[in-house]
Amino acid sequence: MATLTMQDVTKQFGRKVIAVKEFNLEVQDQEFLVLLGPSGCGKTTAMRMVAGLEEVTNGRILIGDRDVTDLPPRNRNVSMIFQNYAVWPHMTVFDNIGFALKLKKMPKDEIEKTVKEVAGMTNIDMLLERYPSQLSGGQQQRVAVARAIAVYPEIFLMDEPLSNLDAKLRVSMRTELKAIHDKTEATTVFVTHDQSEAMSMADRIVIMKDGEVIQVGSPDDVYHRSASIFVADFIGTPPTNFLEVDVKSENGDYRLVNPHVDFKPESHISESLRDYDKKNLILGIRPENIVLTNQKDAVLSAECLVSEPQGSHQVVAIQLDQQYIKVIASAQPKINPGETVHLAFKQDTLRLFDPETTLAIGD
Ligand SMILES: Nc1ncnc2c1ncn2[C@@H]1O[C@H](COP(=O)(O)OP(=O)(O)OP(=O)(O)O)[C@@H](O)[C@H]1O
Ligand SMILES: [Mg+2]
């Protein structure tokens, strides 16, 4: 088992496209790291460089203390599962899993032992004689995983391995992949553009945008301490609500003011406001941190536009000018369209962003 280090790795395609830009990353031994970002941000390119399927334009890649930047894929001890995991249709499950071992000239009885072992881990030991066309999508997915772990790689790369599965199966395969990771203990980089998949699986999440790392942290970090507007918006459903506010000072107190709100924040953020007197800021607040209250304690009062029941809770949308604010409220009492709601903010969860840099202010 090993660490994976990417140092200032850049990948340029042709003259114009910089798919990955001065990318720095340190994956710990046995870690389950998730690379998360929107389509086209460079996730697959970054993984293909680690696997050796794509040359780097600049930078270095290390596995443990071994510099693998210029090594061919077969000498890197990396396994990769691709977006379209394509198991070989003309081979049985057994042969799919054993193929790479055969190429390595592993003795037959050892191949059989290894195939049975990884088939056991991935719950396909009953299917070894079947062909892929005789398997469900989830079973084919498990064959792809078994095939990749059969070589006992030091680094295991999974590029959106669940994207071909239906919603329900995706969720149950998450749990299975995590369990398989715990058994193999391989250092794993899991790529996805699905934030809920990332939140539920990762030890740490790396958020990418336009080829660059935007934030690295635990699921809690990126959710509660989003480093920028992009992260606060990308993580969480519904996403963070944003309000443009002006900072106004009055007898040493700082207030956040716009046509709909005017309040004195009572929390960690009031400290940060000193440097932003008379300036414009973006206030970020998550839907579950806005609470229904009475008129007297409300920071914001407005009409409910729609309420979406979700069983365990309801998502209430209100409209402020051109913008919607979403609030997660308990399922009962049901809020009806047109009803006036009085809202307060959980003050210790507020986050402020600088509109120019889009970065968070404070910690
Ligand atoms: N071989 C190539 N030649 C030119 N441009 C490429 C090539 N491969 C990728 N790109 C470009 O590099 C950028 C990053 O692509 P990449 O496939 O790494 O994104 P991604 O984050 O994996 O996206 P997705 O979530 O859609 O899979 C994109 O703009 C893409 O068009
Ligand atoms: Mg991709």
SSE layout:
Blueprint: E1 4-13, E2 17-27, E3 32-36, H1 43-51, E4 58-63, E5 66-67, E6 78-81, H2 93-103, H3 108-121, H4 137-149, E7 155-159, H5 167-184, E8 187-192, H6 195-201, E9 204-209, E10 212-217, H7 219-224, H8 229-234, E11 241-250, E12 253-257, E13 262-263, H9 269-273, E14 280-285, E15 290-292, E16 300-309, E17 313-320, E18 323-330, E19 340-345, E20 351-353, E21 360-361
Parallel strand pairs: 3-8, 3-9, 6-7, 7-8
Antiparallel strand pairs: 1-2, 1-4, 4-5, 9-10, 11-12, 11-14, 12-13, 14-20, 15-19, 16-17, 16-19, 17-18, 20-21
Helix pairs in contact: 2-3, 2-4, 3-4
Magnesium ion is lined by residues 43-44, 83, 159.
Characterization of this structure:
This protein has 363 residues and is α+β, with helices and mostly antiparallel strands. 25% of the residues lie in helices and 34% in strands. A hairpin with a 3-residue loop joins strand 16 (300-309) and strand 17. The longest helix has 18 residues, at 167-184. The two termini are 34 Å apart. The model has no long low-confidence stretch (mean pLDDT 92). The site of adenosine-5'-triphosphate has 12 residues, from strand 2 and helix 1.
Brief write-up:
With 363 residues, the chain is α+β, with helices and mostly antiparallel strands.
Quickly list its features.
about 375 residues; OB fold (Dihydrolipoamide Acetyltransferase, E2P); 9 helices; binds adenosine-5'-triphosphate; 2 domains; 6-stranded antiparallel β-sheet; 6-stranded mixed β-sheet; 21 strands; single chain; binds magnesium ion
